[in-house]
Design brief:
EC number: 2.1.1.-
CATH class: Alpha Beta
Distance between the termini: 37 Å
Strand content: 15-25%
Number of strands: 7
InterPro entries: SAM-dependent_MTases_sf, SAM_O-MeTrfase
Bound molecules: S-adenosylmethionine
CATH topology: Rossmann fold
Largest sheet: 7 strands, mixed
Helix content: 40-55%
Organism: Halorubrum rubrum
Strand order of the largest sheet: 3-2-1-4-5-7-6
Order of helices and strands: HHHEHEHEHEHEHHEE
Shape: globular
Structural class: alpha/beta
Protein name: O-methyltransferase
Keywords: Methyltransferase, S-adenosyl-L-methionine, Transferase
CATH superfamily: Vaccinia Virus protein VP39
Radius of gyration: 17 Å
Length: about 220
């Protein structure tokens, strides 16, 4: 189900920033591998947030070959810690960074992002959560202490992707229960994430229906 009307989607796609050369190559690879990158509409929001937050250090949960990271870099971020289970994806990310001259600005950590974050103290200025949907709340809780006040956390796939958006709407608007984890772990994970950030006084949150829907939270304490 498309969250936005077709003509609005076309307008946002037509007015999103052009890909850089490396982003265009990554987007072609994503098509070839059928790999879910965040895309230019949501990517432009990452760029904007990095710029507004004057971001220096960024942490990502789930980076693939580093497409989303390039948007933070375009927004002026100094460095991005990329995390990825899949060694081939991470290696491709390193190759892109070498070829396009930004290898000193990205670090690819292969392994479980939930363990990698424990090895970093921060402070981080921006965070992207885009890995296993059932782990979003744990990721948020583990990274929040490392986020500086005024920093931002972006979570992808809050309206589309591997989630049942109708169930999320029924939960948020009508108080319907979320599906149990054994029935639909991704939808439950996203629903719980939205509940947690909306009720946490440490952050202010807005949902933006760009790309596959992003929850943007800024730390206020
Ligand atoms: C949606 S893709 C990331 C796309 C990327 N953020 C982008 O827009 O370019 C999700 C990635 O997270 C990885 N992943 C899932 N769970 C993970 C975990 N616990 N630790 C590290 N990587 C994980 C998957 O292997 C997959 O490559």
């Amino acid at each position: 189900m498309d969250v936005l009307p077709e003509h609005t989607r076309r307008f946002l796609a037509a007015t999103a920033p052009e890909h850089t050369a490396v982003q265009a190559e990554m987007a072609a690879l994503a098509d070839e591998w059928r790999f879910p990158i965040i895309g230019p509409e949501a990517g432009a929001v990452l760029r904007l947030l990095a710029r507004l937050a004057d971001a220096e250090r960024v942490f990502e949960f789930g980076s693939g070959f580093g497409y989303s990271a390039t948007w933070f870099l375009r927004g002026g971020a100094d460095t991005v810690v990329c995390t990825e289970f899949d060694a081939e994806e991470a290696e491709r990310g390193r190759e892109f960074a070498d070829e396009y001259g930004y290898a000193d600005r990205v670090t690819f950590e292969v392994g479980d992002a939930m363990e990698t974050i424990d090895r970093y103290d921060g402070p981080f200025d921006a965070v992207l959560i885009d890995h296993r949907k059932a782990s979003y709340v744990d990721a948020y809780r583990s990274v929040l202490p490392t986020l500086r006040t005024g920093g931002v956390v972006v979570a992808d796939n809050v309206t589309a992707g591997p989630v049942d958006f109708e169930r999320l709407v029924a939960h948020a608007a009508d108080g319907e229960p979320l599906p149990s984890a054994d029935v639909d772990a991704a939808t439950r994970g996203i629903g719980e994430y939205v509940d947690v950030v909306r009720s946490d006084d440490a952050v202010e949150t807005v949902i933006l229906p760009v790309g596959e829907g992003i929850a943007v939270s800024t730390k206020v304490v």
